[in-house]
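Subject: Protein record for review, amino acid sequence with backbone structure tokens
Why sent: The fold of this protein is of interest and is recorded here as tokens.
Enclosed: The protein record, placed directly beneath this head.
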Amino acid sequence: MIRLIAIDLDGTLLTDDKRISARNKQVLQQAKAKGIKVVLCTGRPLAAITPFVEELGLNQAGDYSITFNGGLVQKNDTGEILSKSTLPYEDIQRLIGLMQSLDLPLDVLSEEVVLQLPTSTNYQSIYAELNKLLTFQPTTLDGLKKDGLYNKVVVAYHQAYLDQQIAKIPESYREDYEVIKTRSNLLEFMPKGVTKAFGVAFLADYLKLSPAEIMCIGDEENDLSMIEYAGMGVAMANAVDAVKQAADVITLSNQEDGVAEVVEKYAL
């Protein structure tokens, strides 16, 4: 029996115009009423998902969110942090050097603030266009604090150039960090071992649930780990091939209420 459903947002629960459809909302509210934990599991910070949490009524005692690609697990009603993983200052400096060599813009997420760093003289980050709910703060390279809190590093730029430069990243960086594309125009660096599966597994252990009792739904590369972890891994019809290949079930697309379809069929 499914007792927890972890759901990605962009390309999964949300339509292309970033809305939750009426059917998705209705079915997820039915799942919660049945006692199933409905958990938004996203690369975004909590501030960028709060409107969706409130719309779904997931802001009560017993509701949880997994943000920063598994780097933060929180209680939605109080904001209490159950698990937090961050990058040290030295790693931020190392990634700054990499982006300077690749001529790519760099954004560093520090809780609810995005620190915009001038690592590229030719290309400007498009992260503010992708996440309008966040606070953006231009920051100098020597303005970073050694004791600062750094959740993840983001490179946001148009796909063609981004993919061209990703191919140049030395393998050593993939060995030392989780290097994942969360959208076609978004590359992220997380602490090694910190993935959506890491966050879902932590919450499952906290709630004393087994993987067999968990459904995970997603579409992108950063969803792959939780799709593989879950007893029922679900890929959207619009998912990348790797996610589809790993999934137990392929549902309809994010434009066709795919989340509602699979939850109704297998959880309700």
